[in-house]
Amino acid sequence: MFLKRIELSGFKSFADRTELEFVRGITAVVGPNGSGKSNISDGIRWVLGEQSAKSLRGGNMQDIIFAGSDSRKAVNIGEVSLTLDNQDKALPLDFSEVTVTRRVHRNGDSEYLINKQPCRLKDITELFMDTGIGKEAYSIIGQGRIEEILSTRSEDRRGIFEEASGIVKYKSRKKRSAEEA
Ligand code: ATP
Predict the structure, then answer these.
(1) SS3 call for 71
(2) Ligand 1 atom with minimal separation from the 78 CA
(3) CATH of residue 138
(4) What is the DSSP letter of 92?
(5) Mean of the per-residue pLDDT values for the chain?
(6) What percent of the chain has pLDDT over 90?
(7) By the 8 A CB rule, do 64 and 52 touch?
(8) Roughly how many angstroms between the first and final C-alpha of the chain, as a whole number?
(9) Does the structure show a pLDDT above 70 at 84?
(10) d(C-alpha 13, C-alpha 9), whole Å
C-alpha cells in the first residue's frame, strides 16, 4: 500500500497547514532534536484512531492541538489527513485514492472522515484491519518499539504476525458476534 500524502493542520508543532508528499522508494525526514519529526508519526497513528493521549506524548487529547508559541497564538482545531493510493483496491472502497481524516476541537468534539464523508472510528479501524496499517500495526514502528517487540510477551508478538497474515478482521468479527450472542 502506498502512502501518497499527509496533511497536518493545527496538529502539535504544525500550526500552519503542512502537506508532505511522498514518492516511491524511501523517504527520510531529517531535522534537529525537537523539530517535530516524531510529531509526524504521532499524526499518522492519531489519524488511524490512536486513543491513548499518553502514547501521543500528551496528557489529554486536546494536547495534540497546537498550543501556541512565542510568536503564534494557539489554534482551536487539530486535523490530520492521510491519503493512500488505492488503485489496486487493497482497501475495500471503490475509489482510486482514499483519504482518512481526524479532527479534534478544543471543546473536545471530534470527527472522523473517509473521503470527506463523516464516519465512525470503527469504520476506519475496519478499513485498515489486516492491511498492516493501523495504530497498532507493524507498519508503524516508533523509537524503542523494536526492543519492545523483541522482549514483549509472546501473545503480543503473535499479534504482529496475525496482522501480517490477515486474520485480525476475522478474529475481531468472531469476538464481536460472540459478545452480541
Ligand atoms: P527528537 O529528535 O528529539 O525525538 P523530534 O524532531 O522528533 O525530536 P518532536 O518530539 O516530534 O521532535 O517534536 C517536539 C516539539 O513539538 C517540541 O518542540 C514541542 O514543543 C512541540 N509540540 C508538541 N506538542 C505541541 C503542541 N500541542 N503545540 C505546540 N507545539 C507542540
Answers:
(1) coil
(2) 27
(3) 3.40.50.300
(4) S
(5) 89
(6) 60
(7) no
(8) 35
(9) yes
(10) 9
Cell 493545527 locates to 10
- Ligand 1 centre to CA of 73 (Å) is 17
Of 9, 12, 16, best ligand 1 pocket probe by most atoms within 8 Å of the beta carbon: 12
Domain containing 107: what range? 2-180
Q: CA 176 to CA 181: how far, in whole Å?
A: 9
Residues linked to residue 81 through DSSP beta bridges, in sequence order = 7, 101
How many angstroms does the Cα of residue 51 sit away from the middle of ligand 1?
A: 19
34 within 8 A of 66, measured Cβ to Cβ: no
Pocket of ligand 1, beta carbon within 6 A: 12-13, 31, 33-39, 63-67
Q: Is 105 exposed, middle or buried (0-12, 13-18, 19+ CB in 10 A)?
A: middle
Indicate if the pLDDT at residue 3 is higher than 90.
yes
Count structural domains, the chain.
Answer: 1
Please write the tens of the pLDDT for every residue from 95-143. 999 999 999 999 999 999 999 999 999 999 999 887 878 776 667 777 7
Q: Using 50, 70 and 90 to split pLDDT, how confident is the model at 144?
A: low
